[in-house]
Input
Amino acid sequence: MKKRSASFGSSGDFGDVIYLLPIIQENGGGNLWLYDRPWTKQISSRYRIIEPLLSSQSYLKNVDLNDGEGVDFDFSTFRSMYRPDQTLLASQGSHGKKEYGLKVPKGDKAWLTAPASEESKGRVVVARSPRYHNNMFPWTKVLAHYGESVLFIGLKEEHDAFCKAFGVKVEHRPVKDFLEIASLIAGSDLFIGNQSSPYAVAEGLKHPRVLECNLRVPDCVYPNGGQLCYDGHLDYFPAGGGRPKTEIKRMPNFKKDDWTVCPPGKWQYPGFPPQNDITALAQMVSREKGVKIADAKQSIYQHNCERLPDFFTERISVVFDRVQKAIRNAQ
Output
């Protein structure tokens, strides 16, 4: 007699569903039923967007909408186990282990597959949703480095907001569903994005990736993850868009609203007298070297960061505690 496939159920958002998949895979696969619940965003009206990706995974026997009745493993209430310093996989895993004794994977191995798109070959795919940003992420430097190889996927309003925020024009590739998103990411050299459903796809594929990590809710820190950026620093630009891996000199961060603070020894710059006010020094450098005051101020800032790294890094280290705990939890 043929054994009945187990059924797993979720009423979560797209990211919740994608991060539930490795738990289903770890526990032998089965059917996935999606249904609406009043405490989460309606999934039934958006089902067609995620269904093609789900149905293409070999460990999912059937994928469909359902009312949730009779499901073997219901994850619609997993949020009671949620913690912002652990992954959405781990939070759902805690629920599954407590309620049903399910096995919980670490999330260190790929759980998604998708055909690689030729369209994104040699490109750096980027996505940025409206939530879960990190204002210290060096988007301007990233975009300058990868240049015209950048391909933005996502909604038109997301693309418009991205270009406006960073003063750039990047190519926009509208997408119809998550299978297309996965194929574009799989075919690319690299994915860069914030904590969003496209990043969840990149994580599931274990594709080369860089994460703009949110400081308040760092719930996308996985083992064998890509490069994690939470303090404004990238250790290197990964290879992508026809550019080789490029090491980056690590520089401390300095919040803009601290620029009025005078560091020990005053603000210094080679060839100029030290000043209490960085703007005053920047005006001198601007006149002498013929550069914009803003550029001069940035050069002065970098010089003083190198001169007094402890002074600048100490001032904001406390805000990283939750991310650092998330990193430890992922190990």
Remarks:
- The longest strand covers residues 60-65.
- The chain has a mean pLDDT of 92.
- Residues 114 and 182 are 6 Å apart (CA to CA).
- Residues 293-307 form the longest helix (15 residues).
